[in-house]
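Notes from the pairing session

We agreed to fold both candidates in a single pass and log them together. This is the raw record for the first candidate, unedited. Please don't reformat it; downstream parsing expects exactly this layout.

Candidate A
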Amino acid sequence: MATKEMICLTCGYVGKPITKTKGGCLIELTLWLFMILPGILYSLWRLTSKEKVCPSCEKATMIPTTTPKGKELLKKAKNQRKN
């Protein structure tokens, strides 16, 4: 299913969100090299902690523009661009 157009509650960005994975690759690699069990647990946590975030501010505050709040924010953004 294609991602719908969304609007960020924090910065007002309109578009598609990006997927961001929490944690760091370097930490994951280090844990795998020196400690197998913590490496497995850290990898599993990273795989399950992915979230859709705003490409502009990287906050997880994006909502669909088809919701009542989304429509309201989209209307405000369009009015501000006109002025």
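Candidate B (folded immediately after A)
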Amino acid sequence: MKLLRYCFVLAVALLLFFSHSFTQTEISLADALKKGLENNFSIRVARQNLRIADNNNTWGAAGRYPTLDIGLNFNNSYKDEPNRTDPAVRDKYTSTLSSPFANLRWLLFNGFAIKISKDKLAYLNKISAGNATIAVENTVQAIVLAYYKVLLEKEKLAVVEGVRKLSKDRYDYVLAKKEVGAAGTYDVLQTKIAWLDDTSNVLLQKVNVKNALRNLNLVLGEPAEKEYRLTDTFTVEMHEYRLENLLDKLLKDNKNLKNQYINQAILKKDIAFQRSALFPILSLNSGINRFGSRLKYEGVPAVNSTSYDYYVNFSVSLNLFNGGNTRRAIANAKIQEKIGQLKTEEMELTLSNFLRTTFELYNVKKQLYTVAEERIKSAKLNMEISGEKFKAGAINSFNYRDVQLIYLNAAFGKLEAIYDLIDTHSELMRLTGGVISEY
């Protein structure tokens, strides 16, 4: 009967496990990146902003082309008034006036301001493209870290489950010894408390796994309840970098710096734009007006008339004095250009310092990972030896529990060292503009 019950429980457990496995979607890091880049909201917003910048980057928006207007004025009236020569007689008549027109206005020259405006629109387009690239870089880094965070929490779950199994085996062992009188209630309680603590750790770690999966879904733009089975392994590669090479890549490829350089170029264009007010303005105004009228008295045939008005006019204007506003605008533009240069230098210095810090941190993390590997090897061997000593009665449950906790901390330390290396490496790649090509 017990065997039958055991087989039934096992069958139900296997059924639940496989049904749960089949509902999970396998996903690699490459698949996650592809999905996240398609769904991420920041990238989608950046793409729309880039479309706006593309639409604005035209000669028409800069003011090169003329403006053509057409229209029609149409007036009707009916009058009933005394005759001027004979007030006893009333004149009744209708009049209709129509005047269609076409007008062309063209700014022919305004001190090269049109060319300058077009250059600024092109720069703004590049900035929008740079912002889109920055959004992609940030998303790639976020997806990589979220993906490996899930793997980290799952690896931790495997560790605590392993420790819980050892605690359960130790509890069962002490319980069996108590039944034959070789152990007391105190020893049983100590091992039971250790097993219950490890069970609590497993439950809490499962929550951490779910939270990590929920965060992964967030950066992928997927529903929170979506479940994945991650196929990549939780490993890390060691890279050797030279600081000089990284600094060169920072100044050449960092997307934030590139955008700042473009902003600096726009500020220089602003100076030229303000100087354009010192030049004369030449404009053309041309068009045609047609005037048509119809006058109809009662009892008299209608009288129609039509006339045309053609014109081509040029105008030239030059501002000689406006209270010093033009000179003041030029001076302010030069100051803004200087401020932009200071901000650029500050950004270069800040990013260079941050890169140096991250580079040094990465090298330290590599050393910490090597130490963590040696530590986990020693802790694992120590726990195996301590398990044998515990069964032999050479150490008590307190000593064995201390060894378990040392192993748990060592295992967590190695896993955290792997994740820290991945985190620091991705930051190095982002700073040097290589995070997209790296992943």
